[in-house]
Specification:
The protein is mainly α. 55% of the residues lie in helices and 8% in strands. It has one domain. It has helices at residues 11-15, 19-37, 90-100, 105-108, 111-126, 134-148, 152-158, 165-181, 190-210, 216-229, 238-245, and strands spanning 46-51, 69-74, 77-83.
Length: 247
């Protein structure tokens, strides 16, 4: 198990923007994430710039997961233009775009996908020894929740899977691998991806308890069984899983 990735250096860019440093950091984090997730990048050549948001579209519940950024795909690669109106929330925009570079373009903007990415970045920012500044993380969470008018139970279904340092890398790897292997099964709305996360977490808990190698096929089988029987239950503590395994 490797340490979580330390995203704290990105906070300095919100205090003082430096385009050269921003691009160097972005490339460095892409390499770190490629090793941490153990999957290849979709967008290997990415440039980052900042601009004033003149004529910036109103941020709504429909476009909040793309807030303050324009993505331009060309032969040279992906060009990210980030609008300075994001202010102190710049690190969260950058982390969102870093994770997005590992997702297929045809599903990258799905609400379900970006909602999962947002949960990952929030828990990266909130837990472990590399947590970002608490007040800024709270501001980002409030911005997303209030813009989406998010219901408490909807957020709760996706949170909590990336808190445990023991499972963080494993669950994250399997989640992104699933999203790559089964992208045609991903639906646009949030409910679908919450079920996927439950099964990814189950698979990793079983791997730890039974000392077997987790398989993506197992995740897909569990997802299908879950949909057939329509009985999703969330058990996030190791002892709770252990109690039910041997009944």
């Amino acid at each position: 198990m490797n340490d979580r990735i330390d995203f704290r250096p990105l906070e300095g860019l919100a205090d003082e923007w430096d385009e050269g440093k921003a691009n160097d950091l972005f490339r460095e984090y892409l390499k770190k994430l490629e090793g941490y997730l153990d999957i290849a990048l979709i967008d290997k050549h990415v440039s980052v710039s900042i601009a004033k948001g003149k004529g910036l579209k109103e941020i709504t519940a429909q476009n909040v997961y793309g807030a303050w950024v324009v993505r331009n795909y060309s032969e040279k690669g992906l060009e990210l233009t980030i609008f300075e109106e994001c202010g102190k929330l710049l690190p969260y925009v950058l982390i969102r775009e870093l994770y997005s570079c590992f997702l297929a373009r045809q599903v990258r903007d799905f609400e379900s996908i970006q909602h999962a990415v947002n949960v990952v970045l929030l828990e990266d920012a909130s837990f472990g020894k590399y947590r970002l500044r608490k007040e800024r993380t709270s501001e980002w969470r409030k911005f997303i929740d209030e813009t989406r008018r998010q219901k408490e139970h909807e957020r709760e279904r996706l949170e909590g899977y990336f808190i445990d340092d023991t499972l963080h890398q494993q669950v994250l790897r399997h989640l992104f691998l699933y999203l790559r292997e089964y992208e045609e099964l991903i639906k646009e709305k949030t409910e679908n991806i919450s079920n996927v996360l439950i099964q990814v977490y189950w698979s990793n808990i079983l791997e730890l308890l039974l000392d077997k190698t987790g398989q993506i096929d197992l995740i897909e089988t569990l997802r299908c069984l879950n949909l057939i029987f329509n009985a999703v239950k969330q058990y996030r503590a190791l002892l709770e899983y252990e109690k039910f395994l041997f009944i």
